[in-house]
Amino acid sequence: xxxxxxxxxxxxxxxxxxxxxxxxxRCLEHQQWILGPEVKEFEERVAEYLGVKHCIGVSSGxxxxxxxxxxxxxxxxxxxxxxxxxEIITTPFTFTATGxxxxxxxxxxxxxxxxxVTYNIDPAKIREYINQNPGKIVGIVPVHxxxxxxxxxxxxxxxxxxxxxxxxxxxxxxxxxxxGRKLGIIGSAGAFSFFPSKNLGAFGDAGLVATNxxxxxxxxxxxxxxxxxxxxxxxxxxxxxxVDTIQAAILLxxxxxxxxxxxxxxxxxxxxNKGLKGIEDLILPTEVQGYHIYHQYTIRTSRRxxxxxxxxxxxxxxxxxxxVPLHKMKVFGNGRSKVxxxxxxxxxxxxxVLSLPIEPLQSKEDTEYVIETVRSFFKA
Length: 380
Ligand SMILES: *Cc1c(COP(=O)(O)O)cnc(C)c1O
Hints:
Layout: H1 9-30, H2 37-50, E1 54-58, H3 61-77, E2 87-90, H4 96-104, E3 108-111, H5 123-132, E4 137-141, H6 152-162, E5 165-169, E6 177-178, E7 181-182, E8 189-193, E9 207-211, H7 214-224, H8 245-255, H9 258-276, E10 290-291, E11 297-300, H10 304-313, E12 338-339, H11 344-352, E13 353-356, H12 364-379
Parallel strand pairs: 2-3, 2-4, 3-12, 4-5, 5-8
Antiparallel strand pairs: 1-9, 6-7, 6-10, 8-9, 11-13
Helix pairs in contact: 1-8, 2-8, 3-4, 3-7, 9-12
The structure holds pyridoxal-5'-phosphate (PLP).
């Protein structure tokens, strides 16, 4: 039977083998495993790529979010942590880490509903919540889900109107843009993930914080290494959250390919869009005002579970991102978070979304096979 995986990292490694093997060899020779030369080089190259003043390599996307929020607590309140009375507005339709880092920063996440077309947080809902709860909100954490930008004009307008910080969760959107500007550099800070399955993936855990703010830069850099500039005389309650030299080296080698790979994703998405249009009970992704990098190609249908098993029986892997919205998880219960109004769009999305294989190197034949198989499901 033909098999189409969600991703084929082995194939990607073969494609970049020369570059990757060379940087690993360089690390083996210099043996500077902690904050070695590749870390700084990677930070500088990503800063240049994104068009941002500072980048700090950290140990994961989760830590990038956490360190950004902690730095903002110190910068804006002069306290190590935020308080439970400090509210941060975010989306319930995301990976757990978006919300759990808000809890770990000390603040209370407030979940507002998404826009059902883009699956991203609905700025109108943010504004409505703030109008009804003035003075409680300290920040917004928008997530650029599946590689598509949130409406950053509206989010930044609200943020400046109410003096809120914005931490962009860019874990799924390296290289994606909002009106020509790369994501992750528009808010106060951007938190990137290089988890192996992300569109720029390391060979293990890694992440990065991007910021134009000198103070946030200083603070995140301290928080990454125990909390001080001087390891033996520390100022803040920090972490051990550095990116490994070898991961930075691998990412440096892979960075060369990111634009090509994002373009390949867009080509596959275009094939899916053409091949799958006109099916009743099948909604395709919509690209709005930005450069969508299709970290995921996500469709929706009321027959999601049935379709998923049908594809699986025919060798096609798919994934559900995400089956449980955050406000339904136990960790966000017990009064630890707030829900604003109905989250019906997030709940409906969780029941109906399905992400199809989008390996940048997957063959035309494989993409066609996925299209034919999806079509045959709806014909039957
Ligand atoms: C992957 C992901 C994260 C967490 O990144 P890690 O590197 O796995 O810690 C956070 N938010 C979103 C939206 C993600 O997809």
